[in-house]
Amino acid sequence: MSNPLTSRPTLGQFSSIVCFKAVITGMEEALGEKATSIALIAAGRQRGKNLAKELGLSGASQDLDLIADKLNEAIGANGTHLAAIEKIVAQGDVIKVYCSETICSAGEPQGSDRKCTFTLGAVWGALSEITGKKLRGTHTESVLRGGTNDVFEYTTLT
Amino acid sequence: MSISNIDGILQNFVSGTADVQGAALVSPDGLPLASTLPGTMDEERTSAMCAAMLSLGERIGKELSRGNVDRILVEGENGYGILMGCGDDAVLLVLASKSAKQGLLMLEIKRAVSEIKVALS
């Protein structure tokens, strides 16, 4: 991929949330919410896997604090601005990822039933690549529905 | 859900059914659960495609008043790709050669779906 800073010397590498959300709602209009969700989660997983590989984290660590720091650096305020990763904790067999300012929830009204798809997938793909485990992810708490964070839960498939 | 049981069911189905070249079971959100696909196929990409395709088929069925979707059949010059829902929890993909008899194939797929549904429950 060419360097976005050289291919867009004036506009740089960032685009508006408004346009990103228009892509999502446009896809939902054409393909339906479910098919769109599947496609975006799959795209996110691919992105997360590639990101973990680029960061040299494949199979590298089971230290969740370290993983949270590395991912936050890559996709948070100092990275691509997809979401801020606040913490990652293990509760039994479940890995819980606490995010804030996710792009999926941005600009949505309180009470909206929108769920994270691309962001859920991106963290999912990265965690799978880093831990070497086959995971299944769901978006369990949302800032749009009374939560303090967008929380993603990942369970290992046995 | 025990993936190893489902792996066994898929392997028996593929090895025991004439003209079947591969099969995969994927979650409705496009996650590969078990597969016996040819090595050249990317499991994750295939799974996402299958789940999206079935979902799109269901939308077509609804929007165009075709009713509930029983299966989705892709017929290419080299054979068939068939998608069938396995309840709410999974989607079955079956790849078969061009020489497969469609009626027999559908019968075998329905048998496999019944077995998978029991394993998933």
TL;DR of this structure?
Chain A is 42% helix and 18% strand.
Low-confidence blocks of residues of chain A = none
Which strand order do you get reading across the main beta sheet of chain B? 2-1-5-4-3
Helical region count of chain B?
3
At the first level of CATH, the class of chain B is: Alpha Beta
- Average pLDDT rating of chain B: 92
Number of domains of chain A: 1
Poorly predicted runs of 5 or more residues of chain B: none
Question: Helical residue percent of chain A?
Answer: 40-55%
CATH architecture of chain B: 2-Layer Sandwich
CATH top level label of chain A: Alpha Beta
Indicate the structural class of chain B.
Answer: alpha+beta
Number of domains of chain B: 1
| Principal-axis shape of chain A | globular
What distance separates the N and C termini of chain B?
7 Å
**Name of the CATH superfamily of chain A:** H-NOX domain
Count the E strands of chain B: 5
Portion in beta strands of chain A:
15-25%
What's the architecture of chain A, going by CATH? Alpha-Beta Complex
Q: N- to C-terminal separation of chain A?
A: 36 Å
Figure out the total of helices of chain A.
Answer: 5
* CATH topology-level fold name of chain A: H-NOX domain
Write up what this structure looks like.
- The complex is a heterodimer of chains A (158) and B (121).
- In chain A, helix 2 packs across helix 3 and helix 3 runs parallel beside helix 5.
- Chain A contains five helices and four strands, in the order H-H-H-H-E-E-H-E-E.
- Chain A has a single domain, classed as H-NOX domain.
- With 158 residues, chain A is of the alpha+beta class.
- In chain A, a hairpin with an 8-residue loop joins strand 3 and strand 4.
- Helix content of chain A is 42%, strand content 18%.
- The termini of chain A are far apart.
- Chain B has 121 residues and is α+β, with helices and mostly antiparallel strands.
- Chain B has three helices and five strands; from the N terminus they run αββαβββα.
- In chain B, a hairpin with a 3-residue loop joins strand 4 and strand 5.
- Chain B is globular, with a radius of gyration of 13 Å.
- At the A-B interface, helix 3 of A face helix 2 of B.
- Chain B: Keywords: Transferase.
- Chain B: It holds the Pfam family Robl_LC7.
